[in-house]
């Protein structure tokens, strides 16, 4: 297949997915979001697997990628519902950190235009520092930034699923046509010994 076919487009799409996943992984690490970190790590591995399967003509790897995209879309829909507080979910809960820390999204304190200010406690004479962080002036609330990230991931995953199905069908057709042509070759090789068999049946005249 040439460079302008769906195969090259799918390679470009996988590369874009890797870049988007790495960008998201960095900010999830900064916010100690352990559940998204694990999901992003699996996503990066599967995308690399799909990229390898496309380059090396391995349709089974691309099938694994296509199955994962369905799970990846489901996960990102859950993240959207989490930050929009749909179905009783709360964006202030520690669900994404496995309830082992009180950290929230990195964008909640470092979003566009946000001014972070630490407010000391009223009765605090201890040397522990500050207990409350005030964030003001954010142009976009952090939950909408997370929703945009997840929406972009869903868009890439849906397009990737369509192209993955197309690439698998193309590879399968090429394999079937190759086996079909090879079947004629094996048939001719198998019947090749019939010619000398006729020679063996001819009467042999011995010269006296």
Automatic annotation (TrEMBL):
Keywords from the UniProt entry: Cell membrane, Membrane, Signal, Transmembrane, Transmembrane helix
Signal sequence annotation: 1-21
Transmembrane regions: 34-55, 62-86, 152-171
Protein topology in the membrane: Multi-pass membrane protein
Keyword Cell membrane on entry: yes
This protein's GO CC annotations: plasma membrane
Domain of life: Eukaryota
InterPro entries: Na/K-Atpase_Interacting
Compartment(s) of residence: Cell membrane
Pfam families: NKAIN
Biological process (GO), any one: regulation of sodium ion transport
Family assignment from sequence similarity: Belongs to the NKAIN family.
Protein name: Sodium/potassium-transporting ATPase subunit beta-1-interacting protein
Annotated gene: LOC103190353
């Amino acid at each position: 297949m040439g460079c302008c076919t769906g195969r090259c487009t799918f390679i470009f799409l996988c590369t874009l997915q890797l870049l988007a996943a790495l960008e998201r992984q960095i900010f999830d690490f900064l916010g100690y979001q352990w559940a998204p970190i694990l999901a992003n790590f699996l996503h990066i591995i599967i995308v690399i697997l799909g990229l390898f399967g496309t380059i090396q003509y391995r349709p089974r790897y691309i099938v694994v990628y296509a199955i994962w995209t369905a799970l990846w879309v489901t996960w990102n829909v859950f993240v959207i519902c989490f930050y929009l507080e749909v179905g009783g979910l709360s964006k202030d809960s520690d669900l994404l950190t496995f309830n082992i820390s009180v950290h929230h999204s990195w964008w909640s304190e470092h979003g566009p235009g946000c001014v972070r200010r630490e407010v000391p406690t009223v009765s605090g004479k201890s040397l522990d520092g500050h207990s409350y962080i005030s964030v003001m002036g954010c142009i976009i609330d952090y939950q909408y930034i997370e929703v945009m990230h997840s929406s972009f991931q869903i868009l890439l995953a849906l397009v990737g699923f369509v192209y993955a199905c197309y690439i698998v069908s193309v590879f399968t057709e090429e394999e079937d046509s190759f086996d079909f042509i090879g079947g004629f070759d094996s048939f001719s090789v198998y019947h090749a010994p019939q010619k000398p068999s006729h020679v063996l049946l001819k009467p042999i005249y011995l010269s006296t």
